[in-house]
Specification:
255 residues; alpha/beta; 10-stranded mixed beta sheet
């Protein structure tokens, strides 16, 4: 099984983003060291986990959104930014994205129970306390994990980057029913003109007191503002990283 995973990662490295090229430097029975990243080998059919800031005291498990993989430009920038601020960031991919990486064919996300099951499989491999996080759909799945009856004891917080409060063009179909059941603090980094939950819609909702909103002025679903706003995308991403790192440390500081 281990050898199969070695060949899988070696065959896949050309398909990873250009920002993580020349991935495999050293293989051991437990992990692959990949330049500034470490790719842990997960058994049972899951691909490796990319780790930024290995050895950092605070741990965050970061899931991708519906349309982009774990090594998209946004995910790379956010993960490396958190790592620079003392956070160990572990990234993984849901089954449908793993399949896309293998055959190049786009397909919709797995059903919600399958996404949650995958997330739980990843968490089962993590020792010590952590914050679960995700971009868009990944953040929604992280919040649903924290709303379960059997929340892992190690789960201490939830971070969502661009939370999808509703499907595209369907603001009447809110995805907020589970939010009152979240048992740990939650932070949402959100652009004020996010098409899946802008400031006017969200501020009209009665969100639980344990959920904190950090608004990025004129940001869209990827936190990107328009030029006329006077802000840049990098400014908003760095602001979100700074705020998120502080939140993660607050959630884990007593652990």
């Amino acid at each position: 099984m281990f050898i199969d995973h070695i060949f899988w990662l070696l065959a896949t490295k050309a398909k990873l983003s250009s920002e993580i090229n020349n991935l495999v430097n050293k293989a051991t029975a437990d992990n692959l060291v990949v330049e500034d990243y470490t790719a842990d080998l997960l058994m049972g059919g899951f691909m490796g986990i990319l780790i930024d800031g290995e050895g950092n005291h605070y741990t965050c498990i970061l899931a991708h959104g519906a349309g982009a993989p774990m090594d998209s430009s946004f995910m790379n920038q956010f993960a490396s930014g958190l790592a620079e601020k003392g956070i160990q960031v572990r990234r993984f991919e849901f089954p449908y994205m793993q399949e896309r990486r293998l055959n190049g064919k786009k397909r919709p996300p797995n059903r919600q129970p399958e996404l949650i099951e995958c997330f739980n499989e990843v968490l089962a491999k993590i020792e010590g306390p952590y914050v679960v996080a995700g971009k868009s759909m990944g953040g929604r799945m992280a919040s649903m994990l924290a709303a379960q009856d059997n929340v892992p004891e190690q789960l201490k917080g939830v971070l969502a980057i661009g939370y999808p409060f509703h499907p595209q063009g369907k603001p009447e179909k809110l995805r907020t029913e589970h939010l009152p059941d979240i048992k740990v603090p939650m932070l949402i980094e959100q652009g004020t003109r996010d098409a899946l939950g802008g400031i006017e819609l969200v501020t009209a909702l009665e969100l639980p007191s344990g959920i904190q909103m950090n608004w990025l002025e004129d940001g869209n679903h990827d936190l990107k503002p328009r030029v006329k706003s006077g802000y840049t995308h990098d400014q908003h991403i760095m602001s979100a990283i700074e705020n998120s790192a502080k939140f993660i440390k607050r959630c884990l500081q007593s652990e």
